[in-house]
Structures are given as structure tokens and as C-alpha cells.
Fold these 4 entries.
Entry 1:
Amino acid sequence: MRLGCCETAPLEQLVAWARIDQRLAELTSQLEIGRAERQQLKSAVGDPTTSVREVDQKWADASLYAIRVDTATRISSGANRLALFGTIPVSSDRFRRVISNSFRYLRGWACTALTAHSNFPLESGLFDLVIVDEASQCSLAAVLPLAYRAKRLAVVGDPYQLNPIVSLSDGLLQEIATQMGFDNDDLRDRGIHHKGGSAYSAFEFVARPQTPVLLNEHYRCHPHIARWFNKTFYKGELTVLTDVSDVSQRDRAIYWCDIDGAAVRPATGSWLNQAEAEETVKQLRGAIESGYKTVGVVTPFTAQARLIDQRAKTQFGQDFLDDIDFVSGTAHRLQGDERDAVILSSVLSPGMSKSGARWIEKERNLLNVAVSRARRALIVLGHPLMGDLGSPTLASLRVYLRDEVARNEGTGLPSAEFRTDSTSEKILLDAMQLQDLLPYSKLEVEGYELDFALLEQGIKLNIEVDGDQHLDARSQQRRQDITRDRVLVNLGWTILRIPAWRCHEEIDSVIEEIRKTQDRLLDEASRRTF
């Protein structure tokens, strides 16, 4: 009774069972062939983590060399024409003609959106490709002349960061739209509103139903910092690959500091919070003494930034602040920049008008920019009643820093959740527990979540279950896995990756492999002890 069916079963059911059994046999055979091919490949190329990285580096080096050779050849062939750049005033019409005559020798150009008109002729299809970076900060009016000059156009931007700075009031823009026969709300919906839209939103609208390509790899912030803005702004779609192997528990700081201050607004200028300004300078001193090489202060209001800057200069002197690349400003000051440590003074507190609080929440993208400038340390100053002050975004940041991060860092003990995210993981967890292996499930290590971890007598073994998503056509997930594993290896972890199908097909073999790896690590640990 190999099929496991009853003698009295209908013929149709017997046939269906027979087909299923035949299909299982075919798939098993294919898995055996794949396993043999994988082992053969591993024998030929060695450890994929190392070999793929080496091949990728060789390819990058070869590509860069080819570009350098081509560029040097073109510059050499046009040396006489290019020499004119050093003899003609930039402001002259002839300088523009020199630029046009040098296109065949210089293939790449960079300029701001506003200086293109003074450097390049307004000619359709002048460039094979125009790339507009930080398009969410550019108005559509500034980018259209560049688009006209392009055969192909790539628009790169982040709609969750800064918008174009427009000084015209909302009322005036409403009046202009009405006089010209446009609906103001419709202009916003189409992304072409002069103040509420941008070049990014305009082109995103006309490209529908095609969705933008998400550049989802993040390398700047410590994972504990990145998790908040990833969840709050990007729906968890960013993959954080920051190398934290050289950042220990003691040389980073990520926390919220409650300041029971009051916001005041002078007769001229924007909002101030004296108590936060004083504490910011104290925190600045602490960051300096902790050894952070670059430090910045970000705040929503220009007046607060100036107040903190003045007090910092009084305390430390301009020369010393220059040495740590210190800056105190709004998020616009640090857009496109970063610092090892960032101190955020929120200012929002009792005493601020409802319109001031509404402005902070309306411009919530400023908080995304502020937090995402911090590489290793983020210190946020805010009122203990932040949840009642009209800014859900700031309130969520307080909850995150005080509860989630503080909970994970406060005890020094492993933080794990006993859950599984797939049937394959559940099968493996059950099997390990039956074999007296005691894994942590979903252990967090420096912001990275591990499927399973074995921690015993000093060993650190990470077991990852890789489903179909790890085999995407462009190998993006595999590359991300390699980057993540390299970080964890530098932190002392051994990584064992198990294809999900093996948990279903050969769980006994998987357990045996885990056991052998654990025994090897324990043996190596005991040798180091003696």
C-alpha cells in the first residue's frame, strides 16, 4: 500500500494518488540532481560568500579601468579644443560654444538644474541620457528644460525627504491657479503643484501605472536608527546593510532624552526652547568625549539652530567645532550630508501654538531627513508629554527610542521572539527542539534579525532558512545576504544557510549538518580556552 490509500477508494482517487506519487518521485530526482550540481559547484568555486565578492570586485575593477582608458583617450584626442577652457571667461558666450564643441571628448557633465541654461544650448535631444538627482527637491519648472535636452530621462528622488523650497504663500498660489483656470487640488494630485509637488511627483504621476524602482539598500545608519524611519516612512521596504562590525555596544548611543521645557516665540523669528538648547550643548559635550569624530545638531526651527550654534561656540570655540565638522541647522542644512552623531532638538512642547505643532507634523519629512543623517549615534530631545502635543510622528519616535531600542539594549541579554515566519522555519524549529538543540528564534543582533541562533559555551551559530525570495533573477537578495553575512562574520558569528526545500525533504540531514557545525565550533572554542 505504497500510496497509503484504502482498498475501497474510487478508481479516480487511486489514479490521482498515483499521479501525485509519480510527480513526487520526479521532483525528488530533480532535487538529487540539483544537490549534486550544487556540491560540484561548491567544490569548484569554494565558499560563495568569498568567491562572489572577489568576482564582483574584479568586475568592478575591470569596468573602472575600461572607463578610465576610454576617457583618457578622448581627452588626449581633443586636447587642443579642451585647452580653451582655461583661456576663455566663464561668463562669455564663447565659453558656451566651447562646451558644445567638447561633447565628443567629454561624455559626462554635471550641473545644477538652474545653471544648465547658461552652459548648454536649448536643443532637443542634446544628451543621450539626463539623470536628475534629488528630484523631490526640484520644481517641475526647473527640470523641464533639462528633460527637453534629453533623449532619455532618469528621475531619481525620495518623496519622503525634502520638497522644493517655495516662499510663495498657499493663498497666493490658490489665487493664481483659480485665475488661470486650474483646480488647486487637482494640481496637487497630479504632482505638478508649484509648492505641493516636485519634479519627482510630476514624473511619477505621468509614468503610471508603472511603479517607481525602489533603491532599497541602505548603508548609512546603524540598523537601530534605520528601523524607525524604515517602518514609519518606507513601510519596511528598505534593506539595511550597514556594516556595524566596528561599532561596539559602548561606542554608540541611540536614545530619547525627556526635557520638560517650554516653547516660546520672540517678537521676531521662529520658535525657541531654552531648556532643550542647554541640554543639547551638554549632549554635544558627551558626544565629543565619547570620541565621535563628526557631530551635528538638527532642529525644525532656524531660531533654535542659531541659539544652539551660539552656545556651542561659546563653550567650545569655533576652531574646535570646525575640527569635528560641527553644524547646527534645520534638516535642509544636512540634506545629502551625514554625521557620526546627530542630536535632534524637537522644540515642540507646551506653549507652542497649535499652528506650530501642525507645521511640524505637516513637514514630517524633515524628521526623516534629520534622523537618517546619523551614522552611529542619535540623541533626541523632546517633551515627556510628546504624545499629547499634536505630532504623531515625533510621538512614534519617542515610543520607539524609549521602548523598543531601550528594551533591547538595557539588559545586555539576547532579545528574541519565539516565532517563525514560514512553514519551513517551523519544521526546522520543531526538529531542533526534538533533538535537544535549544535555538533562539528571531534573535536581534545589532539591528539584524536572525532566523535561529545557537549560543552555547561562547559559540555563535546563525542558522538561516532561505526561501524562494533568495533566488531572484537579478541575484539582488543573494548579494544582500552576502553583505549581511559578512557583517555578522566580522562580529564573530558563523552562518549556516539552509534552503527551505531541505526542511521539507531531508530534515534529518539538516539536523545532522547543524549538529556537526555546532560540535566543530565547540571544539574550536575549547581549544582557544586551553
Entry 2:
Amino acid sequence: MTARSALRTGRGPARLAFAGAWAAVLTVALAAITGCQAMHPLDGVPAERLADSFRTPVRTPRRPIDPSLLGQPRPSVYRLDTGDVLGVFAPALYGDGGLGSPPVVVAETTLNLIPGQGFPHQVGRDGAVHLPFLGPVLVRGLTLEEARGRIVDLIRTQFEIDRSKEDPIVLLSVLKERTISVVVFRNETGPDGAVDNNVAGQGGERFDSPTGEVVELPAYQNDVLHALAATGGTPSLEGDVCVTVARAGGLRLTGCGPGGCQPAGNFGGAADEMAFGPIGGHSVGPALAPTLAGAPTVDGPQVVKIPMQLLPGQPPGFCHSDVILKDGDAVYVDSRTKDVFYTGGLLGPGSFRLPRDEDIDVLEALAVVQGQRQSVGTTRALTGNSVLSRDVTAGASSLIILRERPDGTRLRIEVDLRDAVVDPRQRILIRPQDYLILQYRKGEAFVAGFERFFIEGIVQGVSTGIFFNN
């Protein structure tokens, strides 16, 4: 190899590196001139100027409610009501029928029967059992002994049995206790705690496992506590903070007759001339829109909301009758849908769940976001870097928090991450639905662009020159 060729070979990588450097400089300059978004950061209200309420914890003191408040005490005696199945035997009413003793009813697991004797009679909706010769006998609210005494008195009156004689034989037992049918819907978090944080680039996806079940609750167990216990237990503490109970019959559509909604026009007209009612309901013909006697949402008066967490000293906000369930009631347990915050800008798009029992500030929120991003292998080139990493590379120090106001507008809060490390006024607490945008300041954006395009351009130019000259 000649000296001239060696010189040419040595100068090749340098030339490529020099050209790459100039290209990087021109790229940075062009980005600044043409309006790169990094050169136009968002601004907001400085965090240190905000009231102390922005730093006041609201979640930390909450504690789980005493589960006994969701149930009811079992009374010392069982009182009869609609749905109970009684075993009744009285020779005065049935005769012996060739039997020396009353029929024996053996318990069957599928029927949930209790061992007893007598002919089965169910307590009807009127609270009475209908017996031969006696007709309806009102037993609602009576104990078993009280009901037996009433039947004995009615037999004496019906057959004119003198009071001086012994009581007629009456055997009375409960063959099957009544049950209350309720529907329980649960749309709760999965086993990983509501958010799947292993989705690269997303930062967390909801993981719900909706279920629905019709539950038969025994008498004196017809309450929210037993309904939850029968369908998986009390709500996950990572789930919703309240249980909703919709009362059966609390809301009814009106304006429809036995034959359906009455038509509001002639069926002979053209289709576009027909005024059809709302979606759903009857499928043919124009109809008058049914009306409701109340709000058709979970905010209506027919709905009871029972919180699962309370602040110290906070009253529960419901009474004993609210947890008692009646036939046809619906219980709904839902996952929290608003207890997340969102990210954008250099943090990348994503949603992250807020802790249940504690508040987190901006520094802790960034630690959660960047920690989860690193665990799924998201690189700095995709998400950017903050000054908190204390890296040798350029980092962003401006964090914008978009917070929704009651009127629907958004308040922009600007946090200086450099000051937040030492100034507690910068450490704003994160609220549900907050949107966190990490961005460069103008100087930081220039340095980051220089670092990315100039230095990396030189390295790529040199490596490319070496590759082609080999």
C-alpha cells in the first residue's frame, strides 16, 4: 500500500464524520427555524404559587369499612313469611288416611329441605297457608309455636271443640326456609390489580373480569354482606370504593299499555313520515316514547350507594335498611374507572393507576412511570429522559400537569423538576384524571437535539466510513 493510498484511507472516516456533523447541525437549525415542538414548550401556573389544597392528602386516611355494617343480626327466633314451606299434619284436617303417623319428608340437597313431618304447604304472597277446612291461615310474622297455636284455635272454632278438652293434635315444622333472589354484577379488577403494566409502550391497560350471578339468599342473610360473600367476597381494595344497590320496582316505565306502546300515527304512511320512538322496546310501528318516574341512572332515588372506605370520623352515609336486600334487587360492584392518571410528551402515551391508600406527588408519579417503562424495555429514544435520572445526557426539567376544573376546562400547572427535589411547594399531589406532560425547556431542547443529531451523527459517520473502507 502506498503512502498516498494510506492517507486517502485514513481521511475517509474523518470526511464522513465531518459531513455527518454538518448535516446534524443543519438538521438542528432547520428544526429550530421551522417550529419544532420542542422549541415551543407549554407553559402553566408555577406550582409554588398554588394553594396548599394542591398538596393536601385526600386518600391516605381512608380505611376499609367494618364489614359487619353490611350485614344483619340473626334473630333468636325464626319468623314465618312468604316463601317458607311448612310441614303441617293435623288429624282433624287430614284424617289419618290409613296412616298411623304423618308423612315424613326427607331432606334433599337439591331442594334445600330441612328434615320434618307433615304435608307441605307454602306461605303465599298474602302471608297465609291454605289448609283444608280452615282456608287461609295468616302466619306472616309469627314464630312456629305462635303459628301452631293459631291453627289449634281455628280447629277448635271450626269443629266446635270445647275448651275443656285437650288441644287437637297439630304438628308443624319448617321444611324449607324462604330465600330472597337477587342479581349480583361484578366488574372488578383481575388478579394483577386492575392494570396490566407489562404492555410495552402503553404503561398500563385495564384488566377487568365482569361476572353476573343470580343468588338465592336465605332469610336473615338477605343483605349486602352475604351477597358479596356468595359471589367472591368483599370488593377488592384495588377496586371500586362503593357498592351500588338498585331496588327492584324502584323505577318503572309508564306510557305503555297491555298491548304495548300506543302508535302515534297511521301505519299506512311512508317510512320517513313515521315518528318512531327511542331505540329499544317494541320493534314495529311508530310509538309514543315511554316516560320514567325518576332519573334512569345510578344517581336516581331508587339506588343506594354503600361506600367501602371511610375517612376517620366520617359517617357511613347509609342506614341498616339500606343493606337489607329484597327479592329482585340488583347489586353492582364496579372497578374504579377514574383513579388513573395519564402521561404524554417525553413520557410517552400511557395510563397508570393511582394507589388506593396513599397520595403520590409528581416525583413519585415519575418514578412509577419511568420504572415501569424500563421494566418493559422502553428506551430513552422513545420516551425521553428527565433531570431526575441524573444522567450525563440532556434531561427535561419541565412537567406540565393538566387538571380538569369543575366547569370542564383544564388548569395547566408547571412543575420545575430541578426545584421539586428540594422545594416541597413544587411537589403537587396527583389527582385522578391528571395528564402529565414531560417536556424540554428551549435550552434543554437545543442541547438534546445537538446531542442526538451532532454527536450521534459523528459516531455513525465514523462507523460508516470504517465499514465502507474495510
Entry 3:
Amino acid sequence: MLPAPSRPRPAAAGPRRPSTGTLRPPGSSTARAVRPRALGGSVAPGASAAPQDAAAKGPLIKEFGFRSGFGDHYQLGPLLGSGSFATVHVAVDRSTGERFAVKTLTKRFLGEYLEPLFAARVRHEVDVYRAMGQSLNVAHLEAAFEDDVAADLVLELCEGGTMWQRIRRGAYSEAAAARIVREVLRAVAQCHAKGVILRDVKPDNFLFLNDREDSPLKMVDFGLAQFCSPGDVLHDRAGTPFFVAPEVLKQSYSLPADVWSAGITAYQLLTGRFPWHNDPDIMEAQQAADADDAGRTGRAGGGMTRMTNKTLFRAIISSEFDYSWDPWPAHSPEAKDFVQSMLQRDPEQRPTAAQLLRHPWLARLDAPSAADGGGGGGGLEGAPLSDTLVQRLQRYGTYGRLKQIALREVASLMLQDGTTLQGLADAFSRLDPGGSGRVPFEVAAAELRDGGYDLSESEIRTLLLQFDLDRDGTIDLAEWVSALMDWAKVEKRQEWESWVHKVFDQFDADGSSRISNEELARVLCAASGDEELCIPDAVPAALRRVDADGDGYVSFEEFLAMLHTSEAEALELFPSRRIARGGRRTATPRGGSPAGGGGARAGGA
């Protein structure tokens, strides 16, 4: 066995077009990155604080509580990329041969403690990845490791290159652009449903899983993401200048800022340029760049525009955007209306990402078949299970382990009470013809593999791990029901709160009317002795997600709120991956990517 290479130190980040740099909050631990002028700002009273602010007020820590022994589980492979904050390598699972990406973040210390801003950023990024779970629109977090030198985030590997690399080939067809924009908006809508604002939606942060033209698209890099509930207002400038919303420049913004950035991306996909290209100052800058390039090369045109942030920001705030030059006359009125609605300068007038998924321009993608892509209308909760199976598993994968275990216990109570299970028991029995009460992992995998879904082997494994809470290699009926049930309907039953209280009392072993750290540890680890699930950070991570009042316990009210399924978690936010009737699936080998894919990476460096 080859020894793992020694840990590299992060290298300085190079320029990434079409950006003039990344705006980062003041005090960011990535201060060595290129920073434009006029950075600064604060968080409004009562608004979400940046993770750095929270860390500065919290206790100092010596470690994150992640798993140990990265080298025992993975073989480090070739370098994929590096930046001022991290390096990204290929990592090969020693037991399965599956390929991942590992993002290595060299630890920064103040004495014997982790530097607070560094610790906040790493923990925050891991928490956001965990909140997004196993969505197929995100390059998911497989595991987090640490040793004395660094933290290693093992992520899904995407080998089809960035969206930006494909945009450079020229404008997309309208239909192709619509399919990609829908995946971008699904990712944004899922983040917003979890109270996460991305603050850096751009083509460089979306990767194709493989090099197929119809490859799935995955969001990566939560480095600037922030937990932000609807109505919260942020004031620190953050993002990539070409994609920031006007209100970010004015230092008063919230979730709609991500919709603007997605709108700039949609404009690029449809035209191959930015919407302010005909601004007089920018046209003058482009002409000067072309003349300079012609003087050096003897070729007309082709110069790279060198504009100041002041010019760019003025264009973002006040320039008249172009919707008349080619290729706009060839695009449909629906496409134009769609992009214009996203690029309204008043954030209050912008549709949400979830609303945009129902826009006629995207809805017509589903016209040939209700199961072709799983976007479309809002009636998916009543659709056949086979059409929504993958969507249900993704949604369940965003719940977090504590909620998943609690829902399994609620499902067990429903089974004891003989409650109607929305046809899920019949579906389970078809996979368990012998009536053993358990379905082997491989039987369920075959259902996904051969059931008309466009999924890689890696995605199949990841989705099915949501079922198997006790990691015994089989799926029982309670696990099946808890993962696939429409819990929003169950919440409307009069027995709902009684069921939840019984589960709460079961977890509250000492009868204190609150769940302590020790009780949480028993709940999270008793179902499985898996080292991955019983790490030191398991309980703190669960509390960060559930403990709303920060007292270090879970009250019944917090427990009940955790189990609530909101309208923001609709199935239409997730791709169904159903193959269109009459369509054909291109086989994807184990590991998630065909051989020869270029531009592989996952996560932001």
C-alpha cells in the first residue's frame, strides 16, 4: 500500500474569472484573499450574526470533535485545487475504492486553542453541509475528520467541470439553460428552506457530476453561507462582485440576494454575457481593452475588460439592463419574464426561489411527463411513490439524525396503533415477499438501480443510508415509513402531539421534562455503534440545530418544532431523477463519474 503523501500547506489563490475578487465579511480568516474597497458593515440588532461574531463570544476550543484516522479510511490522491483557506485532493475509500474529494483545512492556533475565527468558519461550514444532508443538488459531506494538523472534509467528487467552464463555450439553448437554472434554483430553495443564505451563487460554485451533456449539477462551497431566517437582515458585504445584489452593496439584505445572483447566472446562460454589457462606462472600458489587445496581438477585439469595482457596482445599482440585443429576440417571452423577475432591484418584488420553480418557463420542462424531472406543479405529495421515491429520500436526508430517529419512533407508535400508512406498508411488502419484516440493503438498491432513475452508484448508496438508521444492512418497516411518509399530513392528525410526547418521554429517561446531553448521546448512539455516528461532536451538533434558547437542553417545545415539516420543504424542491418515458439512461460507473472527466473538484478552496 502506498503511503499517503504528507499534508500540503494551502497555496495562495489565483484569480478566478469573471470575478474581480471575493467580498468577505470583515475579520474573515481568509483575509489574504483579494479584497475590493469599501468592505465593512455590521449585523442589525436582532438579525443573524456572522459565524465569526458568534465564535468570538463562545468558548475557546482545542478541537472540533470530528472523527479521527482519515488516513486509515482513505488514500490521498492527486491535487485538484488549492486556495488561501484549503486544498482539495482526490481521496479513495480504502475499503470500497470509491473516489471522493477531500478538502483539507490546515488548523490555525492561538496558543493551545484553535483560532476563533478559523474554528467558527470550519464548524459553520460543516453545520451547513449537515443541514443540507443528502440532497442530490449538493455535493454532500460524506464525513469530517481531524488530527493535530488539519481538518479533512470528505465530499462527493464531481468530475464534469464547473458551470462557468461550459458557459465559456457560448450561450446555451433556451431549453438547456432552463434545465440548468432549475437545478440552481432547487439548490437555492433547499438552502433557504433550511434558513441558509449562500451569498455566493455563481457558475464557479456549481459542478457537473460527470462530463455528460445532461450531467446532474451539484452546488459546492458553503464558505460564505450564513444561517439566516426570513426577515433577518445582514449588513456585511460578502460575495463575488459580478454576482452580488444591489442591496448587498447597500449593506442591508436577506435571502432575496441569492435570487438576484441566480438571475445573473441565468442571464449568462441565455446570452453568454452580463446584463450591463451595454452600460456606457463598461463599453468604454471594453473598447480600451480591445484596443490594447489589438496593439499587442494584432487581432481585433478579445481584450479582457479592466473595470474598477466602482464602475461595476454603479452598473449593478443603476445601469439599464439589456433585453433587446441578440440572442434575446430569439428567446421566448417566458424566458425574458423569468430573468427580469429575478433581476428586479427591489428585493421585495423578487419571487422566492421556490416560487420561481413554478414559473411557466420552468414548468414547461415537465410537459412531456409528470415524472420527467420532478419540477412542475405542487401536487407531488399525492403522486405515485415510484415517481417521488428519490425526492422523499432526499428530503428525509436533510432532517438530521435526531429528527430521523424520532420519526422512526413515531412510525413505530403508528404501527402499534394500526394507523393507515399512506400505502407505504404495501410498497414495503412487495420488497419483502417472504414477510420477514426486513428488506436487505441490496434489494432496495436494486429497486433504485432498475426502477427508472438516473442515479450513480454513489448516489444510490448515499440515499439508501437514510433508511438504515441502525446500520445493520437491512431496512425495517418503521425505517421505511419514517423516510417516505408525508409527515405534513400526519401532523394534522389529532394523535400527532400525543405520539411526539411519548417519543419525547422515551428520550427523556430521567423524567426531567427536558433532554440532556447524556440522554441525547444515548439516543444518537444507541441505535448504532458506528464510529462515524458517535463522534464527540454528535451531541453538540444536534444541539446547535435544535436548542433554540441555547440552554444546553432540548425542551418538548423545541422537540416538537424540530419534527415540524414546513411548506418550504415541498417535494418539488428536489429532483426526482425519473427517466422520461421513452428516455434512456447513460450508465455511470461506481464512484459517480465516467472515466476521463475533467475539472474535478468538490467544495471550495
Entry 4:
Amino acid sequence: MRFTRMTDLEFFRPRSLADLVNEYGEDLQKPPFIIPGILHNVSTVVYGQPKHGKSVWVCGMVKALVSGDSEFMGQPIHHDREWRVSFILSDGGAEREVVRDMAAMGLESKHHTSVLTYPGMPFTPEQWQVVADRVISDGCNLVVLDNFISLIEGNPNYTQDVNDWWNAAVRPFTLYGIPVIVVAHSSDKFAPGGEKGKTPAASFALTARTRWSVHVWRCGKDLETLAFTGKGQGHTDWEYWSNRDYGFTPAEKPVAGKPEKKDEKKSEKKKRDFEATRDMVRDWVLANGQGVSNKSEVARMVKTALNLDQTEVTIRQRLGDGGYGVHYAGNGKWYRKDSE
């Protein structure tokens, strides 16, 4: 352990590189991840919309750790200690859900997990240090804070408030070398495609402080999608199946790259529908519009004959700019646009 308390100022004194190497010792050889690409050995933020499976997924990961499993979701677990986990929860509702999930996983018979429920009162940094001391004295070496929005005292949209909370609630553990998982909500802002945002609430401050983040969202019945991002790391998406037995089976191998937007399929359909309408209007005008020089009249005839949803004004505009693939050459003559 590097420091005994967050309030110690001893580590501010200058120290030689040799002293630091000796102080860190074997810690320098530790890999950055407890579970490669999934759980960082310093801090991980797991976020998503309410009821999308964040806490259940975290509970499943904790089960794999404290049970001594060799892997989680197909990735090896780095067991450099016997894992003892402490959940620090925001309210009785969160406590009930965690107890239910952990009991369903059969962990009530294992003395490797403990629960501390937040009393719903403002915590000073000194009080958070007392909590940290208590958790550490119980022998816990992994902490889950669930959830960020309810635990923070202050405005989660203010960077300074988020930084103050992180320094008070997270750093007392990480300074002891204890990894921390922070469960948070997604931003309520809507993305350009109309879907809910895919960044955590207070995203800039949270993502700036954490080493790794996991976005959990439900994309189908019993099918979840995880998006992993981190400092200096690429972006990886991973779909997995969850079931009532709290199993998590990867649906496919991780795929690097940005997740496909949910509205892309709708855009493709919209494009196909427009192309079909364009071809239909083009063929009708070439067959029936010859000799009619008034574009407004042709637009009215097209709308009536083909029962289109577009207004006559829109149809006339698209006839005029070639949007339907036909071109008016004058004297009542219409030509296919690509055949001039």
C-alpha cells in the first residue's frame, strides 16, 4: 500500500526514482486490467439508462471474481488476491436489488461481499475517509459505488462538484490500491438521431477522471450491448446474451469501432422507399406527361394518379430540380434525366 491515509502529506515531498521503484515493488508488474478490456485495476465507470442491466452486469462480474472463476465473458481474470468486495449503495431500493441479484447468484453463503447503504445525508471528505477506513479494515479490496447521481453531493453537471466528489469518495480507495467501480446513469440529452445519449451524466468530468468506462444498453430481449472505452485505448463493442441465471455469454467476438447507430437501418429503408417512389414517378411522367408544359399541372396529375404522400408543391419542386429523374426540355417534352 502506497499511502496510509488520503490526508497524509508525506507523499508530497520529493523522492528519488529508486525510492519510488522500491516503494511500488511488485505493483509495477501488475497488468492494467483485472479482466482484460473489461475491468481496470484503478477505476471503471459503468453507465447506461435505468433498467438496462448495469447493476446486474456488475453483480455478475463480482460473482466471477469472488468465486475464483478463471474467466468472465471469455476473458481471463487476473487473480492477484482473494477478492472481497464492498458495495456502497445510494438507497434502500439499490440495496434490495443488489441483495436480490447476489442471492440469486448463490453468494449469500460466501463471506466475500458486504453492503454499506448510504444514509442519505451529506458526506464531507473526512466522513468519506471514515467510510474508506471502515471498508479497508473489513479486508475489502474492491469497491462498487452505486450510483453516482444519488451519491454525489452537489450538481453532477458542474465539473468542480464532480471532481470534489471523486476526490472525496473514490480516491481514498484508489490511493490504497483498491480498484473502484462507479455505476452511473447515461446523459438525458438526446443524440442527433433521436436516441438517448451514449455518454454518462457529467460525461466530461467522469470520463476525465476514470481510467476505463463501460456503456451498457439493452438492444433486444435478453440481449445487451457493451461499449468499452478508455484513456489511450480504442473503442470496442461487445454484444452478449444475459439470462435469468445471471449468465453472460458473448454473442460474438468483440468488434473494434464505433457502434452502429440505431437509426441507420431506418435511414436505409427511407432511402429505398425514396428510390422506389422516384422510379415510379419518373416512369409515369415519361409515359403520361408528354405534351403537358405546366409543371404544377403535372404535379397534380402525378399526386392523383400515384396517390403520393408528398404535397403538390414538393412534387413540383422535385420535378423542377430533377429529383425524380426526369427533366423538362421545353415544348411539353419530358426526358429521362440520365439520357440527355
